[in-house]
């Protein structure tokens, strides 16, 4: 009995050393340094080319990465196409309505990598998306940073798994903090990542309730800048074509910068979830600090993106390397 107990303990210790099973330990910089040392250069070139063709690639890819990581971890589950038997993550109603160019850049980078024998089917789609996301941030003038790699691709993607995991445009600080905390992200991380709204577009329906019939006493959300509210009403009248989308950062929509936080100070946050970061006393000091100091924002953004990239990472035991990023092997 004692002897078999000892054998068991020894076997367990061995198993733990030979198969370390922490979900983050496997991630490291230059993970493909030996197998495919040019991976980052190849992805960067594809991103550059794609961004030249369509600027939308930048916000689309950034948002795609966020949604991938928040739903079932950073495992490229968001890239899976629905089949007759499975409605995939990407087709949930909260899906990435404008993200077509984000999907496309990953597919193109995968193709470029597969053209190199030592890289073919060696790089996970989740890692390609992670690299491409860093590169679009840089392409928009944001800070560069080293990416951690070594993710495996997920084996599951369902529209149902999206429910309750993504923040909504009407969420307030408590709800936002709770959703980010679920992914081991702090309030500071949440505020830094919201800075991604310095880029890209939003459909009118996402903020319509702030500019028309807000509540019984206020037709317009009183935290909105009055002139900005008028502009929004002009751009997004009632019964507007649902395909119309407007810039989230009215000043520098194509630049990754800290103007997002200056906009919040002026009541120019587009969503409730943006503006509450300034009106809530718990998050306001951080907004003020990053409106003043773009270097501090950039550092916080890098920290938060790195942490976001560690969420729910798959190992070779619950993931694989997809041959086609849009379909399971
Ligand atoms: C904090 C909670 C967040 C909420 C409530 C939120 C919500 C939204 C909504 C409703 C849109 C507009 C979608 C549309 O109308 O098609 C949007 C766009 C966008 N979001 Fe967020 N988001 C949040 C956090 C983030 C984070 C963390 C990132 C990335 C790090 C991000 C990146 C983007 C980008 C880049 C766009 C523009 C997409 C495009 O132009 O294609 N968002 N977000
Ligand atoms: C989003 O989901 C809707 C169905 O809810 C679908 O018609 C649409 O094609 C999806 N968009 C993308 C980009 O996959
Ligand atoms: C309408 O919203 C404002 C601002 O949030 C608030 O002060 C006011 O009490 C609200 N009125 C009603 C009737 O809910």
From TrEMBL:
PROSITE patterns named in the record? PEROXIDASE_1 (PS00435), PEROXIDASE_4 (PS50873)
Q: Does the keyword Repeat apply?
A: no
- Active site (record annotation): 67 (proton acceptor)
Any transmembrane segments, and where? none
- Per UniProt, what is one Pfam family of this protein? peroxidase
Q: What reaction does this enzyme carry out catalytically? A: 2 a phenolic donor + H2O2 = 2 a phenolic radical donor + 2 H2O
Q: List positions binding heme b.
A: 197
Top enzyme class: oxidoreductase
The residues that the entry says bind substrate are 167
Please verify whether the record's keywords include Iron: yes
Protein name as it appears in the record: Peroxidase
Species of provenance: Cardamine amara subsp. amara
